[in-house]
Amino acid sequence: MKLELTLNGRPCVTEAPGHWTVLDLLRDGLNLMGTKYGCGEGVCGTCTVLADGRPIRACLVLAAHVRGRALVTVEGLERDGRLDPLQTAFAERGAAQCGFCTPGMLLAAKALLAQNPAPTVDDVREALAGNLCRCTGYTKIVDAVLAAASGAR
Amino acid sequence: MRLYPFDLVEPDTLAAALDALARLDGEARLVAGGTALVPMIRLGLVKPDRVISLHRLPEFAEVRRDGGTLQLGAMARLADICTAPAVREGWPLLAEAARRVATPAIRVSGTIGGNLCYAEAASDPAPALLCLEAQVRVAGAAGGRTVPVVDFFRGFYETALAPGEIVTAIRVPATPAGARSGYVKFTSRSAEDRPLVGVAALVVRDSSGRWDDVRIGLGGVAPTPIRAPRAEAVLRGEAPGDATLRAAAEAAAREAEPLSDLMGSADYRREMIRVWVRRLLTSLRDGARSA
Fold first, then answer.
1. Partner of A35 at 20 to 30 A CA spacing, among A97, A109, B48, B106?
2. What does CATH list as the number for A85-152?
3. Interface touch B3/A126, C-beta < 8 Å
4. Nearest residue to B94 via CA among B20, B164, B182, B205
């Protein structure tokens, strides 16, 4: 089937079988490997991407269901070669260890800050409740999101 | 890992969706948000030849107040239900329960119709809809019918839908005037868990403080979401003190039929029903929550 959508700010016209998920489309159809396959059941959150600014699980959503929508993946966070403030904060605050959960964490946090530029600790924890990290724990991740929010204000 | 290679059908009318579902060649499944069906396909629990997506049916996505009734299209997203001002003002119990489903990204995709049709015993919205006495609108080749949500759940992951039928909408009658309501859930591990026990309750007090309307819905404590009529009977007409609330919680624990699974044993679930029913009812009595 033919798919037209906006991907990281650019128009994208592509083909995908009907049984493909958004994750299949990104990784195998479009060779964007930033979005990870974790549990495949919508639990771990590492495949989180944004569709029209809201977080979705790329492993659960059928590719057909993002037809005509605007997708943002971790590859789309930097602007003109400059990292997003969230990415900078994650790097500076040691909020990534193995890095596997990081793309999903960044996009879930991006969605939060877009609708709530001044979140509390609880707001951040709730927004990231569906993103699992098995290395560092969550303290530095939450700190990094709060730092990015206060730096951006 | 790829999904089983089904054919995707994307009808743009209800009639075309019903036709696609009625075809007899191979197994067909409906998909709304995909948060339930896709994991089932990935785990190999179902291998549909044809998946019929409802995402092109525009009237299926509506969240609309219609006089005193709330009209939810079957494809209304949980994230939209819990943020819609009409729902938060008029049906706060439903908004609260929808907001507790899984995690943010799941609520963005998951739909109210899909949640009910999956017939998960530990659904968060189902106990709220049981208390609100919602009605499920169903379309089939022979026409439409309405099923009270209390009759919609028939057994373990089993609904009243006949083959070839599609849920089109959920209608929620007005919340009774002056009602206090709330939804609490207990998960034994983390946020994305289904509730070990979910409790919704709605009470209306008369001028003397007696509870003349009491509705309690439970999730995760029986093969389907249930009302707790014996617990309700303990409270009806009472201005409940702590002992009466404890007796109601005990009645709820006794009328539940909990299963044992990896999240907790049947005995543990029964104990958690006692705890969470009592806590919710106490907070409703003491005015910590209101509609």
1. B48
2. 1.10.150.120
3. no
4. B182
Q: Which residue of chain B is at minimal alpha-carbon distance from A49?
A: B105
Give the residue from A118, A117, A115, A91 showing the smallest Cα distance to A105: A91
* Cα(A54)–Cα(A72) distance, integer angstroms: 10
Domains A2-76 and A85-152 share a fold: no
Does the distance separating the beta carbons of A24 and B43 come in below 8 Å?
no
How many A×B Cβ pairs under 8 Å?
A: 94
- Sketch the domain layout of chain A as residue ranges: 2-76, 85-152
Selected residue of A15, A26, A39, A56 to mutate for chain B interface (largest B Cβ count, 10 A): A56
Full set of structural domains in chain B with CATH? 7-52 (3.30.43), 60-172 (3.30.465.10), 181-285 (3.30.390.50)
| Facing residue for A60 by CB, picked from B7, B38, B43 | B38
pLDDT tens, residue order, chain B (291 aa): 899 999 999 999 999 999 999 988 889 999 999 999 999 999 999 999 999 999 999 889 999 999 999 999 999 999 999 999 999 999 999 999 999 999 999 999 999 999 999 999 999 999 999 999 999 999 999 999 999 999 999 999 999 999 999 999 999 999 999 999 999 999 987 777 889 999 999 999 999 999 999 999 999 999 999 999 999 999 999 999 999 999 999 999 999 999 998 889 999 999 999 999 999 999 999 986 544
- The token pair at B207 is 């001028």
Residue B34: list chain A partners with CB under 8 A. Answer: 60-62, 65
Does residue A25 belong to the interface with chain B, where contact is any CB pair within 8 Å? no
- Chain A contact for B86 (CB, 8 A cutoff): no
Chain B CB within 8 Å of residue A129 CB: yes
What HEC string does chain A produce? CEEEEEECCEEEEEECCCCCEHHHHHHHHCCCCCCCCCCCCCCCCCCEEEECCEEEECCCCEHHHHCCCEEECHHHCCECCECCHHHHHHHHCCCCCCCCCHHHHHHHHHHHHHHCCCCCHHHHHHHCCCCCCCCCCCHHHHHHHHHHHHHHC
Tell me which residue in B1, B53, B191 faces A62 most closely, judged by beta carbons.
B53
**What's the ipTM?**
0.95
CATH class of domain segment(s) A2-76? alpha beta
Q: Measured on CA atoms in the order B4, B7, B13, B16, is the torsion positive or negative? A: negative
